[in-house]
């Protein structure tokens, strides 16, 4: 009998809930697909042109394993100008996307059996990322009827001697929730009291509609215990460039560098040059991207408010809408299937983001207003929403 080819830690893993609709999207020629958080906008032409020019000028080789020196310097300047956060180049590590960054942070941070707290609902890959790094995910339930706001006492009850970190994602995927400064500071005080770290997954920073985004790393109770993940994917419509970065304490960044040298060594040079241009010209390039998705998100929200048997709060962040379909009296599986069969509309089931999300559906508003209207013109005819 042959030994298993696939390791035990990967053998049981299949596609997650976020990928479940990929094949179904091809089942009908008129499907409106709200599943993927991939902006349908092409990266701004100026970014593409600048990256192409840099490639022709010779930026086609490995960069330093921590990242392109000019990009790292620009990130340091950006953090100070935008948030008042003082960093040195040794606090920065450029990654091949924020997902790669999360893997790298967890791989560098966790010993076998360390626990990582994850607030529900959460970006679906977190749990497996923790497990693959040898850690144990510990889920923090939240109350959908309280807007999924995390309760600090519930978090405190989940802390053990094995707790290593708490992942915090705001604005949140999938709920769109934006945490308040006071809530983030409470996390920092608890982390200091109980001796664990904070992993800030700061991906949708430009999509905070109620007020300017405030990073945990800028707050006194949090700054000494926060590792930050950032990305260019959403803020600049650059998902395919696969570029992000980690901000953290110098020794941690040095350790992450050593881990990554055995993985991909360094992020793609051309993508780093694109990120450099995007960051330098953010005041011109970012607002049109943000305004387009804010317009779409609020348009889809307005269409949702016309439906019976659903609940949806006004958007405060991201370009996701997390729709409460419990008033239909049907399960999320049944409503999800009816939307696909009767309206040819694809969404993601809320339970893909943890048990607190069960009974919800997530819509990623990454299609244009015409497609949004096409979808909701069909949805409005469905009996369960009349």
TrEMBL record:
Pfam families, per the entry: Aminotran_1_2 (PF00155)
Keywords: Aminotransferase, Pyridoxal phosphate, Transferase
InterPro entries recorded: Aminotransferase_I/II_large, AspAT/PAT-like, NHTrfase_class1_PyrdxlP-BS, PyrdxlP-dep_Trfase, PyrdxlP-dep_Trfase_major, PyrdxlP-dep_Trfase_small
EC code: 2.6.1.-
Aminotransferase class I/classII large domain mapped to chain residues: 30-379
An example Gene Ontology molecular-function term: transaminase activity
Cofactor(s) this protein requires: pyridoxal 5'-phosphate
Family membership noted in the UniProt record: Belongs to the class-I pyridoxal-phosphate-dependent aminotransferase family.
PANTHER family per the UniProt record, alphabetical: AMINOTRANSFERASE (PTHR46383:SF2), ASPARTATE AMINOTRANSFERASE (PTHR46383)
Protein name: Aminotransferase
């Amino acid at each position: 009998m042959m030994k298993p080819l696939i390791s035990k830690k990967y053998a049981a893993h299949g596609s997650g809930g976020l990928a479940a609709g990929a094949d179904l999207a091809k089942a009908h020629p008129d499907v409106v697909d709200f599943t993927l958080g991939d902006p349908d906008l092409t990266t701004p032409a100026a970014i593409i042109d600048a990256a192409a020019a840099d490639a022709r000028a010779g930026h086609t080789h490995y960069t330093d394993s921590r990242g392109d020196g000019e990009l790292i310097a620009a990130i340091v300047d950006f953090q100070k100008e935008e948030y008042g956060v003082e960093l040195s180049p040794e606090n920065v590590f450029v990654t091949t996307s924020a997902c790669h960054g999360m893997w790298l942070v967890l791989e560098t941070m966790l010993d076998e059996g360390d626990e990582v707290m994850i607030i529900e609902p959460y970006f679906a890959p977190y749990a497996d990322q923790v497990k693959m790094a040898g850690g144990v995910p510990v889920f923090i339930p939240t109350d959908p009827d309280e807007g999924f706001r995390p309760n600090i006492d519930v978090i405190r009850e989940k802390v053990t001697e094995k707790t290593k970190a708490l992942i915090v994602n705001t604005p949140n995927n999938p709920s769109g929730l934006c945490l308040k400064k006071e809530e983030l500071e409470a996390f920092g005080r608890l982390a200091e009291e109980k001796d664990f770290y904070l992993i800030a997954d700061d991906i949708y920073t430009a999509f905070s509609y109620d007020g300017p985004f405030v990073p945990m790393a800028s707050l006194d109770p949090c700054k000494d215990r926060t590792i930050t993940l950032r990305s260019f994917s959403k803020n600049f419509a650059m998902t395919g460039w696969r570029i992000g970065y980690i901000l953290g304490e110098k020794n941690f960044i040095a350790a992450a560098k050593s881990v990554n040298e055995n993985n991909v060594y360094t992020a793609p040079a051309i993508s780093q040059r694109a990120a450099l241009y995007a960051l330098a010209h953010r005041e011109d390039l970012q607002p049109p991207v943000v305004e387009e998705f804010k317009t779409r998100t609020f348009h889809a929200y307005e269409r949702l408010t016309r439906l019976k048997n659903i609940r949806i709060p006004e958007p405060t962040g991201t370009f996701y809408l997390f729709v409460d379909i419990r008033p239909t009296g049907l399960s999320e599986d049944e409503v999800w299937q009816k939307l696909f069969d009767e309206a040819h509309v694809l969404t993601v089931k809320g339970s893909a983001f943890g048990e607190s999300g069960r009974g919800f559906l997530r819509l990623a508003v990454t299609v244009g207003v015409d497609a949004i209207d096409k979808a909701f013109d069909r949805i409005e005819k469905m009996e369960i929403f009349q």
